[in-house]
């Protein structure tokens, strides 16, 4: 392993490779903290941690894919608030034998995903651990936050795409399949623009599906003090997580967003019913038993 | 282990136990992200990750102490920029068998340290891992950032306290000692007010000693394009880290800050000399071999 200074210099080159200069970034990587000048509006903050063996396996995914996937989970959280992600902090614990080239590959994956939305890495921390752990924190801006608590009785429930491809990819990888069908687990393609369209269309509540659709709908129902009835003939995976499909509620009096799939209604009551049946909201949970 | 929702509710109670309401915090724990309204000035962002066996051992430190220590490392980074920490995000990977009570104890330690400076936890993530990993990201405000690059030839080098007690505590713990002398390793007492006094006094550069005094001075010398000469009769530990003593440079024409100990001068040249001898800047590094 190179010295810490050499390593940070190598990562700085990758993280500062953004094509355009950023006038708001006053101090980037290399000091005790990053300094950013503030625009108007509100700040939105989120964090997401990924652990080897729990969220990814190095024999299944390249380090580039792993970096992109952890970044995507963070970026999706900000979009699910109706916000725009701007700056990332990356902390990583590296197992013994991890090479500088491997760290750079992980960093390039993070940059690749972040650059899709114009966000950049402005700081971080590196340490050692028995298994690879990556924790990203993200700072964004938002004008009108879209909360989980905004769903109103009579609203339509919409999604921008069918969830479950990440979970299906995991099942295939477990079964020894290594082809393109596993891609959505290895590196989910998140449609950030769809979340922006939902926010611009005036959705009343929104979340990204990180732990499973029913789990996210249960959060929305509880936070909003309403029930949710899903009725659909689509072959939807209600429990697979990590796709970062966006689920939202919207007044039927507003124009229907492009790309939205209607799957149900917000009703009086509580909990989530799928085709008339009350469902448990156990989604993917990475917590220990 | 309780369900994720129950666990988050239990943590929310601890993290929202701050005595005063916060008008700027528009959305706290429980949505995809936190939302904070912005004051004037600049935003300062930092992150710090701690790993069981590398930064702490559960047989040596209580979970309360571990939480407080990880929070302190983050808060010190913001103070070392001349800033004020305001909001924390906490991500933790928990080993099997970790109880709800243990998670709460960790959370209480974080709150205890954060409340010393009026900062609060507004979000986070929980997952599983083989060993306990805690990653905190911190958001603060700053009017005039104090960078590592500001040291000028002729400046005095000052510290607010003697570093090395954390490293000494680690050595004692390794040797089987379990008394009060190990406290500064288990839970360093960081003098945040001293950093504020340094910033108000107009220091030209500042860092907190997380990796060892010579390591931090080397960063300042390199970033500022200067050399640093330390001359002291004090019994200083130049390589022990994690104390979060603040080291700064200040013009000799400014009033000397209260509580400062002068240990050297900024000179033409490069690198760090201690009592005339060039030193290596290898501090504490948590990176794998």
Provide the CATH architecture of the largest domain in chain A: 2-Layer Sandwich
The percent of residues in helical segments of chain A reads 25-40%
Broad structural category of chain A: alpha+beta
Low-pLDDT ranges of chain A: none
Q: In CATH terms, what is the fold-level topology of the largest domain in chain A?
A: 60s Ribosomal Protein L30, Chain: A
Main sheet makeup of chain A: 7 strands, mixed
Rg of chain A (CA only) = 20 Å
Secondary-structure element pattern of chain A, one letter each: HEEEHEHEEEHHHEHEEEEE
Strand content of chain A: 25-35%
CATH superfamily of the largest domain in chain A: PurM-like, N-terminal domain
Sum up the overall morphology of chain A in one term.
globular
Tally of individual helices of chain A: 7
CATH class membership of the largest domain in chain A: Alpha Beta
Distance between the termini of chain A: 35 Å
**Mean pLDDT over all positions of chain A:** 89
Main-sheet strand order of chain A equals: 8-10-7-11-9-12-13
- Assembly type of the chains comes to homodimer
Instruction: Give the total of domains of chain A.
Output: 2
Largest interface: A-B, 77 and 79 residues
Q: Tell how many strands the DSSP assignment of chain A holds.
A: 13
């Amino acid at each position: 392993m190179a010295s810490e200074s050499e390593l940070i210099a190598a990562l700085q080159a990758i993280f500062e490779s953004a094509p355009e200069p950023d006038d708001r970034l006053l101090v980037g990587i290399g000091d005790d903290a990053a300094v950013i000048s503030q625009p108007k509006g509100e700040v939105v903050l989120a964090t997401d941690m990924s652990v080897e063996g729990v969220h990814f396996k190095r024999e299944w995914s390249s380090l580039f894919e792993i970096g992109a996937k952890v970044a995507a989970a963070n970026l999706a959280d900000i979009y699910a608030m109706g916000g725009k992600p701007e700056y990332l902090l990356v902390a990583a614990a590296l197992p013994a034998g991890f090479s500088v080239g491997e760290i750079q590959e992980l960093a390039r994956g993070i940059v690749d995903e972040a650059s899709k939305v114009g966000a950049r890495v402005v700081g971080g921390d590196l340490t050692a651990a028995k298994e690879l752990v990556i924790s990203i924190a993200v700072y964004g801006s938002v004008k009108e936050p879209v909360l989980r608590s905004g769903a109103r009785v009579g609203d339509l429930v919409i999604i921008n795409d069918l969830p479950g491809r990440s979970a299906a990819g995991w099942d295939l990888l477990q079964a020894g399949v290594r082809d393109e069908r596993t891609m959505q687990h290895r590196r989910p393609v998140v449609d950030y623009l769809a979340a922006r369209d939902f926010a611009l269309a005036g959705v009343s509540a929104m979340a990204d599906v990180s732990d499973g659709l029913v789990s996210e709908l249960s959060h929305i129902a509880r936070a909003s003090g309403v029930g949710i009835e899903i009725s659909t003939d689509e072959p939807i995976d209600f429990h697979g997580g990590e796709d970062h499909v966006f689920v939202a509620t919207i007044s039927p009096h507003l124009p229907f967003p492009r790309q939205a799939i209607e799957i149900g209604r917000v009703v009086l009551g509580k909990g989530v019913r799928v085709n008339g049946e009350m469902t448990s909201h156990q989604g993917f949970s990475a917590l220990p038993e």
